[in-house]
Amino acid sequence: MRKKVTIPEILQMKRDGRRITVLTAYDFPFARLADGGGVDVILVGDSAGVVFAGHDTTLPVTMDEMLYHVKAVRRADPKALLVADMPFMSCQSGVEDACRNCGRMIKEGGAEAVKIEGGMNMAHVIRAVSSIDIPVMGHVGLTPQSIHRMGGYKVQGRKEQAERIIDDALAVEAAGAFAVVLEGIPAKLAEQITAELSIPTIGIGAGPHCSGQVLVIHDILGLCEKYSPKFIKRYVELAPLISGAVKTYVDEVREGAFPTEEHSFN
Ligand code: KIV
């Protein structure tokens, strides 16, 4: 049987050069499937707001919504490390709010770590949350909660911007994060940051040289028809399979082909 993945194990994986696999999940069945597939970390991402709830951005996602998703994933009892994403404005208004909200994810949600977006600007928050023994995964580069500052989902850290992303990653590490997501930055920059940091880097749209990789589960399963950025790989096209199954069900009920004796009680 697979052993429970812990924070020390994630740190050891970087030291051993073993690549870390991270996938999002937002509910019980997908958490069971992701865990059964052997991922090291399940991230209950605030991407739930887009792929699950149908918003255009992650900004409207609330603490209560995230707690609902985290609790559902917890019930799957994953061997993977369970990381809860902190939604917009759950940590930005000060360390007291941040500690309280991160604490809720652990205490009420059953998460084992939290993820906080932001670099130098959020280092004081990451330090405070880490200091009360809540492990923090950082997230720098293209941070979706900063969509309005960035003016859209654009690659960050090109040319003279690179130094700022390096400083962000270093600040997150110095503040006590156990890992950091590098999103939407040039592959060479991600390689340099991965070499400079002692904590693992988890890439998404950051090339092949990070310590690990994260993707959104709806994207790898072909369930999100709304967008398809370059960094996504679809491992199966589930959307047409699901629509096909639903169409067959609808046809059979309309034609009287389902239910039959076989599906009936005496
Ligand atoms: O919300 C999310 O799912 C994320 C990952 C894609 C890194 O932040």
Task: Briefly summarize what is shown.
The chain is an alpha/beta fold. 40% of the residues lie in helices and 14% in strands.
According to CATH, what is the topology of the largest domain? Answer: TIM Barrel
Helix/strand structural class: alpha/beta
CATH homologous superfamily placement of the largest domain: Phosphoenolpyruvate-binding domains
Text of the CATH class of the largest domain: Alpha Beta
How many β-strands, per DSSP? 8
Order of helices and strands: HEHEHHEHEHEHHEHEEHH
Strand content: 5-15%
Helix content: 25-40%
Main beta sheet: strand number and arrangement? Answer: 8 strands, parallel, barrel
Rg (C-alpha, Å)? 20 Å
Query: Domains counted in the coordinates: how many?
Result: 2
The number of helical runs is: 11
Q: Average pLDDT, to the nearest integer? A: 97
In one word, what is the shape? globular
Bound molecules: 3-methyl-2-oxobutanoic acid
- How far apart, in Å, are the first and last alpha carbons? 42 Å
Q: What is the architecture of the largest domain at the second tier of CATH?
A: Alpha-Beta Barrel
Strand order of the largest sheet: 1-2-3-4-5-6-7-8
Unreliable segments of 5+ consecutive residues: none
What does this protein look like?
The chain folds into 2 domains: 7-235, TIM Barrel (Alpha-Beta Barrel); 238-266, no CATH class. The chain contains 11 helices and 8 strands. The longest helix is centred in the last third of the chain and has 18 residues, at 238-255. It has helices at 7-16, 28-36, 48-51, 63-74, 95-107, 123-131, 147-150, 162-174, 187-196, 217-220, 238-255; strands at residues 20-24, 41-44, 81-85, 113-117, 136-141, 179-183, 201-204, 212-215. The chain has an 8-stranded parallel barrel, surrounded by 7 helices. It is globular and about 70 Å long. The chain binds 3-methyl-2-oxobutanoic acid. Residues 24, 43, 45-47, 85, 181, 183, 204, 214, 216 line the site of 3-methyl-2-oxobutanoic acid.
